[in-house]
């Protein structure tokens, strides 16, 4: 769609709307009673501001980007005695795990819930404990972690395998065998993760062997879309919609997304959702000291302009201010498009064949997020510790296509999260206040014409478009939480331009690369690139999600350290010790990678 034609009529004005009659076109004529024409940057800053004079090299490795993948690689290399420099272009560290504050409120950006971190010592929990020195704490959500709302019907995803099956069997009488069979397939994906991980670490010449093994031994549903797999089990479209109602967690509708990513996410949350105590910024805050222990540092306001080459080898980075920093290894956490299209000089990228490889993958969808502040506590407002997924109908594909072609069509997915209800420490930091986040898909093209304008000064037409989307999202919120009418003190909408500006994803993409079946067949999405000295980490080489990107960080560290030193480090991590209390013995951690997804808490 042409960006210059973008105009967004009120919700459901398009003919494709299925339930537009229930929509109140003017639910709240002034949704933002405290409009903020000149928003001030957040004061919540994690990391140290970059100055060339603060560099204290030589460094053993440089990490570009402080997302959870980059921080994990840095923390693990530090635990192996390396001195690591992390360079982050944003004013705060953490990538999508950063949080920000404004007007007396604080919101997370890309951390609404994390799975596999409950009481049981899962691998996810052990890795979080190790890289945070045991300082990252987790608060459980409600046992109903996700509520899928199809029109006026609500279906609960309840923590624990048995409870999950019992609840859905109650709602779908006679479907218990289908639900059990579905979970078997979900578990089979978890069982495949060690092999997927191992392939990323083995030399490239092993790829045909892995390919043959996968072809002969893997169930064919590992190569299919989520919908294809579910449709083999049942023709009950409502049940399929409920089982795939978390599709926003990977940004691909069930008919387009790989069953692998669906299953990883479904399994990740099967034993419940958790929230970092103190908010999402606690992740970077607790990991950075581990990096500093060996003389490393995490600098913010530190945009890397280009990778430096000596012949075919990457030897360092040039910063935006012209400073050149050298290290034997450079690890990019900036995503594969940024790495091979912007950071690596074109000649080197072409020589290594990356322009052709990039044609096999697509950027993921982009999104809107309405950040809301209220002058009462979550308890006073009755806010739940459950995420709400609102859909106009079970036909996710048709609804999403209609909206992405015509933003006036009904919003196909509205996701609501209540961070202040989930964080037991929120009230200590912000007494008498609460926050809500409302997320929806979006097209970058709708906002493209303002991409060259400065943040906070994009003009009245941009603000008007944001206002229209804000009102529509608020209408969805009020439909399910009518007690919130008149309670909102402040709200602001982020667009794909915000994601581009703060997290440096060119198309404002929410999850890096698309997670379609073709992506999972790409053997070049691995830590070690074809360019000597250059490594990748983060969501693009494993999967989206904080845990997916964090395990990518682990795989990259392993790749850099090699089997012997990397294996020793992994034994320390998965023996249960923290970075402050490094243990010594454990069993085959690599072979168990991803296997925590199989275990009950
Ligand atoms: C709205 C939203 C909600 C989400 N909700 C959840 C959730 O509830 N649970 C969950 O598990 N996951 C969630 N995710 C996904 C999760 O946050 C991400 O998959 C994960 O954090 C990505 O981590 P990463 O390591 O790949 O790096 P990123 O977080 O993508 O960070 C990359 C970093 O690189 C930096 N960078 C880029 N270029 C340069 C440069 N040239 N110089 C210096 N720095 C540079 C960027 O500024 C950025 O900080 C959500 C994501 C979004 C957007």
From TrEMBL:
Residues 1-44, 579-601 are annotated as: Disordered. Keywords: FAD, Flavoprotein, NAD, NADP, Signal. InterPro entries: FAD/NAD-bd_sf, Retinol_saturase. Residues 26-40 have a biased composition (Pro residues). The keyword NAD applies. Residues 579-590 have a biased composition (Polar residues). It comes from the Bacteria. Residues 1-25 have a biased composition (Low complexity). This is NAD(P)/FAD-dependent oxidoreductase. It comes from Microbulbifer salipaludis.
């Amino acid at each position: 769609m042409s960006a210059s034609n973008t105009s967004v009529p009120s919700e459901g004005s398009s003919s494709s709307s299925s339930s537009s009659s229930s929509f109140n076109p003017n639910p709240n004529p002034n949704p933002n009673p405290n409009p903020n024409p000149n928003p001030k940057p957040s004061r919540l800053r994690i990391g140290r501001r970059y100055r060339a004079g603060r560099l204290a090299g030589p460094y053993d490795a440089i990490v570009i980007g402080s997302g959870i993948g980059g921080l994990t690689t840095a923390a693990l290399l530090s635990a192996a005695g390396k001195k690591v420099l992390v360079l982050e272009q944003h004013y705060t560290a953490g990538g999508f795990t950063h949080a920000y504050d404004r007007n007396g409120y604080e919101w997370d950006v890309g951390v609404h819930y994390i799975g596999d971190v409950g009481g049981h010592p899962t691998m996810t929990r052990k890795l979080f404990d190790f890289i945070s020195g045991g300082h990252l704490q987790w608060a459980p959500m409600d046992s109903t972690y996700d509520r899928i709302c199809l029109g006026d019907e609500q279906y609960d995803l309840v923590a624990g395998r048995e409870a999950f099956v019992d609840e859905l069997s109650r709602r779908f009488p006679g479907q218990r065998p289908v639900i059990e069979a579905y979970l078997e397939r979900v578990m089979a994906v978890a069982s495949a993760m060690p092999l997927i991980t191992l392939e990323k670490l083995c030399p490239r010449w092993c790829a045909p062997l892995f390919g043959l093994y996968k072809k002969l031994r893997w169930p064919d549903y590992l190569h299919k879309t989520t919908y294809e797999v579910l449709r083999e089990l049942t023709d009950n479209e409502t049940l399929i919609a409920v089982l795939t109602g978390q599709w926003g967690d990977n940004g691909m509708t069930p008919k387009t997304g790989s069953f692998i990513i669906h299953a990883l996410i479904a399994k990740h949350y099967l034993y419940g959702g958790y929230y970092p105590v103190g908010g999402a910024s606690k992740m970077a805050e607790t990991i950075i000291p581990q990096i500093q222990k060996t003389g490393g540092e995490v600098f913010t306001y530190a945009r890397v302009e280009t990778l430096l080459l000596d012949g075919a080898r990457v030897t360092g980075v040039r910063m935006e201010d012209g400073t050149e920093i050298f290290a034997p290894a450079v690890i990019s956490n900036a995503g594969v498009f940024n790495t091979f299209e912007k950071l690596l000089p074109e000649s080197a990228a072409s020589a290594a064949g990356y322009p052709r490889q990039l044609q096999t993958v697509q950027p993921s969808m982009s999104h809107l997020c309405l950040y809301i502040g209220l002058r009462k506590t979550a308890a006073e407002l009755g806010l739940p510790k459950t995420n709400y997924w609102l859909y106009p109908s079970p036909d996710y594909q048709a609804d999403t296509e209609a909206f992405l072609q015509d933003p006036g069509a009904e919003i196909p997915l509205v996701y609501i999260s209540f961070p202040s209800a989930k964080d037991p420490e929120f009230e200590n930091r912000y007494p008498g206040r609460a926050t809500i986040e409302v997320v929806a898909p979006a097209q970058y093209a709708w906002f493209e014409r303002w991409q060259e304008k400065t943040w906070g000064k994009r003009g009245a037409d941009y603000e008007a478009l944001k206002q229209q989307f804000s009102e529509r999202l608020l209408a969805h919120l009020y439909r399910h939480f009518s007690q919130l009418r008149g309670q909102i003190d402040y709200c602001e909408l982020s667009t794909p331009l915000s994601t581009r500006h703060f997290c440096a994803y060119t198309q404002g993409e929410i999850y890096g690369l698309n997670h379609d079946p073709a992506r999972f067949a790409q053997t070049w999405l691995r830590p070690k690139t074809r360019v000597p000295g250059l490594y990748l980490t983060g969501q693009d080489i494993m999967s989206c999600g904080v845990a997916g990107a964090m395990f990518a960080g682990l795989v990259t560290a392993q790749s850099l350290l090699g089997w012997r030193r990397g294996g020793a480090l992994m034994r320390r991590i998965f023996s249960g010790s923290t970075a402050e209390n490094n243990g010594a013995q454990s069993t085959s951690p690599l072979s168990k990678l991803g296997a925590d997804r199989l275990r009950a808490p």
